[in-house]
Amino acid sequence: MEAKQSTNREAPAGAPAEPAGHPRSGEVIVLMSLCAGTLQAMAAAMNLAVPSIARSGLHPSPTALVWIVDAYLIAFACLLIPGGALADRLGRKGVLLAGLGLFTGGSLLAASAGNVPLLIAGRLVAGAGAALALPVTLGLLTLLVPPARRPHAVATWTASLAVGGILGNVVGGAVLQYLPWQGLFLVFGAAGALLLLTAAVRAPRTPRRPAPLDPAGSVLLAAAIVALIFGLIEGRERGWTSGPVLGSFAAAAVITTVCVLVGLRRRHPLLDPRVFTLRPVRAGTVGVTAAFAGAFAMFYVNAQYLTVAHGYSLALAGCALAPIAVAMTLASRSSTALVRRWGAKRVVALGFAALTVGLAAFSLVGADTPYALYVLCPALALAGIGLALPPLSGGIMTALPADRAGMGSGLNGAAREVGSALGVAAMGTALGANAAGTGAPAADLAAAMDSGFRAVTVAVALAALLVVRWTD
């Protein structure tokens, strides 16, 4: 009987409380967007540092290189939802400052690392800090921005993630062109310290939600995400039908099932499974996952294509990708007005149509495709993401009560990271399958992109059908 009563009491349905808004809401939007963009930029910039680290005195093995890159992603993905729940329970500003402090400390630890284990440890600490801080950035926007301005705030925050990913390539390329790999971590450590000081002074405090922590749920959810991401990372190296990879996917499915059953029995679960009965939550989770799978499939090959096929330096390749950040930003800024005029369903459908066409166009790219034509593919795809993500991310947040803003933003973040891993796995597998090739690197890369983007396009298109159906 008590289980039934607690289910009704804790169910997420119903209109959330609507705060009147903070007098410094504009400042909050800017600060939270800068934090989110910086955390995302670190994930993107790291891929450019791999050749420099491989040639360094650390002498990392190929497996160690994978873990150096993915340690940040794994810690990030595993702790996003627990980080959001902690913010709801312990206070958002305190968790934000703790996260930015860990991000800064982890970056500086990585910069000073004299061996591979210490470098991986620094990446894990930085990723854990990012996981604590990122859900707070969206949660604070939801709580402190007036309802009338909230769609604009979410659109700005969404654009900051994509722009941060692209600027990570630009800044990372410029830094690594002139400095050793340690310089990249020093730059992000300095950026984290500046954001930490600014947030300590300017970020407002918000009420806490008294509720017990859920350590068992945190462990189960983290284990499920680790198992899934391990399979995605190792699949392209070990083979998708190898025992460890299939075992990791099976473990992810079993642990997720246990996590759902445990969540349904608890009064204050870390992630309430009942939220997925809400159409906006289903649409947002699947839509964000699919969009970031497409985005990171592009991010994985963009710089490689420009350096291999066109002979660009890392710095020039990063700058050459700047126009796609402009396309994403303009689309995100237009999304709110279009939703008011046409409704969320039509805007999401238009966004996913543009994303699908942009991804499909990559299969037409050849070794001699001019830059002016090539850049249209990611520009169109990211413009589509810019249109679709604000109503999808905002839908998750507005469907949940205000005191569960951290859980909603953590769910947003976990969907992004899983989608990113899916996109990288798809393109990494395609590039690995064409590694032998013809001996012409540019032609081999174009062939790998053709097969990889065909698969990604089909997957995103199928997901889009569900997302549009669930969007009101």
From TrEMBL:
It is found in: Cell membrane. Residues 28-472 form the Major facilitator superfamily (MFS) profile domain. CDD domains: MFS_MMR_MDR_like (cd17321). Residues 1-22 are annotated as: Disordered. The keyword Transmembrane helix applies. The keyword Membrane applies. One of its GO terms (molecular function) is transmembrane transporter activity. Residues 10-20 have a biased composition (Low complexity). It is a multi-pass membrane protein. One of its GO terms (cellular component) is plasma membrane. Keywords: Antibiotic resistance, Membrane, Transmembrane, Transmembrane helix. InterPro entries: MFS (IPR011701), MFS_dom (IPR020846), MFS_trans_sf (IPR036259), Sugar_transporter_CS (IPR005829). GO terms for biological process: response to antibiotic. The chain crosses the membrane at residues 28-53, 65-87, 94-114, 120-145, 157-178, 184-201, 213-233, 245-264, 285-303, 309-331, 343-365, 453-471. This is Major facilitator superfamily (MFS) profile domain-containing protein. The lineage of its organism: Bacteria, Bacillati, Actinomycetota, Actinomycetes, Kitasatosporales.
